[in-house]
Design a protein that fits this description.
This protein is mostly helical and about 50 residues long. It is built from 2 helices and no strands. The radius of gyration is 14 Å and the shape is extended.
Length: about 50
């Protein structure tokens, strides 16, 4: 599988801009399609010892 330079740059941008958001939760529903997309990505993410 080939990853383009633009795709690679997007991954690095995401990693470097990550911030702790635990104090910024809001009481707002997440649209179902967004939740499914996030959960699908999370299920395909690598893990170390399923931790």
């Amino acid at each position: 599988m080939h990853i383009s330079e633009q795709e690679r740059d997007a991954v690095y941008k995401t990693i470097f801009s990550r911030r702790d958001v635990r104090s910024d939760f809001i009481n707002k529903s997440i649209p179902e399609d967004v939740l499914k997309r996030v959960l699908t990505a999370a299920h395909h993410a690598p893990s170390v010892g399923f931790m």
